[in-house]
Amino acid sequence: MNNNLQFDFTVDKAAQKVYITREFDADLSLVWDAYTKPEILDQWWAPKPYTSKTKFMNFEIGGRRFYAMVSPEGQERWSVQKYTSITPKTNFKMSNAFADEDENPELPGSEWDFNFSGQNEMTLVSITIYNESLERLERMIEMGFKEGYAMQMKNLEELLATLSRP
């Protein structure tokens, strides 16, 4: 496993944006699948000890993913994601909002823009997250978004290492 992979996390409060860049020691197709297939997403899209549970996911423009992060005690924190743009293996965009268990969003939410590029069995994922309110951005940071996302990226790195084995 490559321990020198790039991970950058920058918050720009004036623009209400978070910029995340993460490099993976895996080919582009595998990393794309990890972000777009629910059976793989649920294996890494939550900081430990939480787990991710997708109720449904329809990865197409206008489609949605409705999922929960589940605590070790079984508490569920639901979110709904709506896909607004998809360019296979290079980019997708989605809106994201916390939700109740009946899929009613708690607005304001955020807009996520994922960009993927690969070269020589390495893949770079660049994410821009625009928060619809500064208060939401500040709340996310206070809740440990940076640390949680870093744990998710570590989960994905470890999973990709197992999925890449012949």
Task: Write out key terms for the chains shown.
about 170 residues; alpha+beta; 8-stranded antiparallel sheet; 4 helices
SSE blueprint and pairings:
Elements: E1 7-12, E2 17-24, H1 28-36, H2 38-41, E3 51-57, E4 64-70, E5 76-87, E6 91-99, E7 105-119, E8 122-131, H3 134-142, H4 145-163
Task: Describe the 3D structure.
- The protein is an alpha+beta fold.
- The chain contains four helices and eight strands.
- Strands 1-2-8-7-6-5-4-3 form an eight-stranded antiparallel beta sheet.
- The chain is globular, with a radius of gyration of 15 Å.
Q: How is this structure best summarized?
A:
Helix content is 25%, strand content 45%.
Number of strands: 8
Biggest sheet overview = 8 strands, antiparallel
In N-to-C order, the SSE pattern is EEHHEEEEEEHH
Looking at how many chains there are and whether they match, the oligomeric state comes to: single chain
* Strand-residue proportion: 35-45%
Distance between the termini: 15 Å
The helix count comes to: 4
Radius of gyration, in Å, reads: 15 Å
Mean of all residue-level pLDDT scores: 94
- Could you list the spans in which at least 5 consecutive residues all have pLDDT below 50? none
Overall shape: it is globular
Give the proportion of residues in helices. 10-25%
Supply the helix-strand structural class: alpha+beta
Strand arrangement, largest sheet?
1-2-8-7-6-5-4-3
